[in-house]
Amino acid sequence: MKRSFLKNMISADWTLFLDRDGVINKRLMGDYVKNTEEFEFLPGVLDALKGFKPIFNRIVVVTNQQGIGKGIMSEEDLALVHDHMLEAIESIGARIDKVYHCPELAEKNAACRKPNIGMAEQAVDDFPEIDFTKSIMVGDSISDLEFGKNAGMKTVYIHDSSNTEELADEIFESLQAFYQSIA
Fold first, then answer.
1. Which domain range does residue 43 map to?
2. Which residues are catalytic, by number?
3. In whole angstroms, what is the distance from residue 129 CA to residue 156 CA?
4. Which range, of 72-86, 90-104, 124-138, 165-179, averages the lowest pLDDT?
5. What percent of the chain has pLDDT over 70?
6. Which contiguous run of DSSP H or E holds residue 60?
């Protein structure tokens, strides 16, 4: 099993930022998770989230959700999906401190939309103890990695190949594999 060099850096005051689709739940290619029936946790994610709880001071989700901006789903639909996700996470003794989302279309280049750092700034407003230099962004897209780098975070790329991505400090095939590397 691959060991993460981040393991030796992380202490109890670090924050974990997680993308949602493709990291926590199965990504629907060419579509959006619009309801609880379409939301499916990826293998090992719940165990990883439970394991992260004692390691990180804060755990937050940052997710672009332009399906709202396209009119494919509503804010209420997304809230139901996130409530469903959080209930399942809490039921096993894990936690997500807060979920941030950006409903804007990509072409609007809104401050809240990754790779811009608006959602990270919202997290600091809610949790002033967050220090981006003591934070890790875990994502499965280049915009996730750019978001992390733009905020000054370490980055973990969830990708199922040996493709190297220069923006990533670490690459793992899953959130569970990343957790196992720092546990």
1. 5-182
2. 19, 21
3. 22
4. 165-179
5. 97
6. strand 58-64
pTM of the model: 0.95
Phi, psi (deg, nearest 5) at residue 131: -120, 115
Token pair of 57, please?
């001071």
Segment (H or E) for 58: strand 58-64
Q: How far is CA 125 from CA 29, 100, 142, in A?
A: 33, 12, 25
Domain count, the chain: 1
Task: Give the confidence band of 127 by pLDDT, cuts at 50, 70, 90.
Answer: very high
Q: Which residues contact 71 (CB under 8 A, 6 or more apart)?
A: none
Taking the C-alpha atoms of residue 24 and residue 53, their distance in angstroms, rounded to an integer, is 15
For residue 177, what are the CA distances in angstroms to 2, 49, 66, 143?
A: 8, 12, 28, 21
CATH number for position 30: 3.40.50.1000
Q: Which one-letter DSSP state was computed for residue 56?
A: -
